[in-house]
Amino acid sequence: MDLSTKYLGLDLRNPLIASAGPLTSSADGVRRLAEAGVGAVVLPSLFEEQLTQEANRDSWLAAGGADSFPEALSYRPGAAYEAWPHRYLHLISQARAAAGPGVPVIASLNGVSPGGWTNYATAMEDAGAAAVELNIYYLPGDPLIPARDAEQRYTEILLAVKAAVRIPVAVKIGPYFSSPGEMAAVLDRAGADGLVLFNRFLQTDIDPETFTVSRGFRLSSPGEASLPRTWIRLLHGKVRCSLAATTGVENWADVAAYLLAGADAVMTTSALLRHGPAYAAVLVGGLASWMQRKGFVTVAGLRGLMSDEANLTAPGRGGYLSAIEQATHAFGAPGALA
């Protein structure tokens, strides 16, 4: 049974990737995930705001030193005050050692505006990252921002990072575009080595008792997988870059379904947080058992079998009408659910 796959041009021993989260924030966590059998790990994000804050702090220290003593120009805070961007580079090298040679370590860079912070990708590469996942967490709050201006920002950030590094760059995006397929094609043409579908944006809610707006973050559930799975089905074979699935993975069947849709790799954080790092072995083992039962010898042999490229019915108007008719027949009178 061959579970190996390629993602971003990297050779993975299997398609399961531990995505960014608390379990990948330490070398020990990465080691436990690697021992449990993941194919790769994505480290937690380093944020644009953190890099900007550090740059401002360094500028302030340098400016203050210029007015006092020459020795102050070379002063930098010691290890006790070491900022997260510096510690992040240490995490990359430590995670590489903990993961071992067969498990690539992918760094994550999170930002929303074109600027010098993207150059930090070079430091990630120098520290040993096998690739960079570019998490563009951008929801325009101004209703007057033109859609094209918002979308152009993704391309500008991608081009800046691609110009800074030689390693592969994946772009993690959300589904909230007027045409997600076109956006995927635009990023593909701009040089993205992979697309991660989809980012789960923080959504607020209102408590009518306390009159407060909540900003809590919830783990994903299997019901959320249908949206990214639909778009992976549609994009498989239509873009050059790799496709990674994320969101809604709870068991091996979710992994298998994503692969059948056309994913090159399947990421999860929520399932590993619920059940622990060792659960990766359950997911990989379940996938292998299912493949053997269904007669698949390789992951490549099953990838995309249920994609739109395989000439299966696409979720257009016909599929929508059919679904409404089935639901109406099962649950209510004609037109009740339209």
Automatic annotation (TrEMBL):
The keyword Oxidoreductase applies. Residues 3-289 form the Dihydroorotate dehydrogenase catalytic domain. One of its GO terms (biological process) is 'de novo' UMP biosynthetic process. The keyword Oxidoreductase applies. The lineage of its organism: Bacteria, Bacillati, Actinomycetota, Actinomycetes, Streptosporangiales. GO terms for molecular function: dihydroorotate dehydrogenase activity. Its cofactor is FMN. GO terms for cellular component: cytoplasm. Keywords: Flavoprotein, FMN, Oxidoreductase, Pyrimidine biosynthesis. NCBIfam families: PRK07565.1 (NF005741). This is Dihydroorotate dehydrogenase-like protein. Pathway: Pyrimidine metabolism; UMP biosynthesis via de novo pathway. It comes from the Bacteria.
